[in-house]
Design brief:
CATH superfamily: NADH Oxidase
Shape: globular
Number of domains: 1
Structural class: alpha+beta
CATH architecture: 3-Layer(aba) Sandwich
Number of helices: 7
Distance between the termini: 36 Å
Strand content: 5-15%
Strand order of the largest sheet: 1-2-4-3
Mean pLDDT: 95
Length: 192
């Protein structure tokens, strides 16, 4: 599969088969993530992989966080649906920003700018992971609903860093059509 085909064919998968992902496939997908460009070659990503028996524990922690949000009066958004997707995915990869430990602290402008650069680098790593998964026949879903259980998941995973996102991975049990995209002219302005 060439890069153009991968970009065109990548889909967000929300239904997975229960088949495990072989370790060598998972390793190749994670290695692709580490090949992403990063600001000043900082490589600020850290990947924590959850699979097999730990999945049920992960889902329990996620539901605990969602419930805590409800107690605070915060709407759960799509977090319950996302938890159901994560529960059936054979692998979840949590993605952390090692350049930031406390996302909610006061920062100087230069620290804010560096954090933004690191998060952009991590976004590139997540995209690489997603495209490499597709090339291996593995479906993926980029998840930000983990923020509903941000502190709970960080604590359970034993990571002090900023939790940026999670990726559910598994063999697809669906083939969704391409989602509509805005025309290039609607999102591009050329300055001459």
């Amino acid at each position: 599969m060439d890069v153009w085909e991968a970009i065109r064919e990548r889909r967000s998968i929300r239904r997975f088969k229960p088949d495990p992902i072989p370790d060598e496939v998972l390793t190749r997908v994670l290695e692709a993530a580490t090949l992403a460009p990063s600001g000043k070659n900082s490589q600020p990503w850290r990947f924590v992989v959850v699979k097999e028996d730990k999945r049920a524990e992960m889902i329990a922690v996620l539901h605990e966080g969602i419930a805590a949000c409800a107690v605070q009066g915060l709407p759960p958004g799509s977090s319950k649906h996302t938890a159901a997707i994560m529960e059936q995915a054979p692998v979840t990869v949590f993605v952390f920003n090692t350049a930031e430990k406390n996302l909610f602290r006061e920062r100087r402008v230069d620290e804010v700018l560096w954090n933004v650069a690191c998060v952009q680098s991590i976004g590139a790593a997540i995209q690489n992971l997603s495209l490499a998964a597709l090339a291996e026949g593995v479906g993926s879903l980029w998840i930000c609903d983990v923020y509903y259980a941000y502190e709970e998941l960080r604590g359970w995973l034993g990571e002090p860093y900023h939790l940026v996102a999670a990726m559910s991975l598994g063999y697809p049990d669906e083939a969704p059509p391409a989602r509509p995209r805005k025309p290039l002219a609607a999102v591009t302005r050329v300055v001459k």
